[in-house]
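Write out the 3D structure for:
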Amino acid sequence: QLQFVESGGGLVQPGGSLRLSCTTSGFTLDSPTVGWFRQAPGKEHEGVSCISSSDGSTYYTDSVKGRFTISKDNARNTVYLQMNSLKPEDTGQYYCATDLTTVQVLCNNPKRYLGLWGQGTLVTVSS
């Protein structure tokens, strides 16, 4: 059974940085598209960033462009989300998911993956 394990969240001041990690058990991340999603308090799930294994293409939602970087380490079966210049509005529970599709389709359809991701990791940006 596919299981995701997200980690790396925490409490950070505005302007700070965190690096989230996503790995899986029972499945390798070297072939599908992998994405990070988040749910802010009182808001719906949102696709944050996705990366394709087939062509290396990436997608970022507008609010994180220039601040977040997604990357993959196939040897470690891990996808990272480097988050810099964090803002209070980045606060939320972050999850990862994967599918054999494009970065745009994966990131723009978070509802398709509800219940398929792991426990998530909590990011809190606050002074």
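The radius of gyration is 13 Å.
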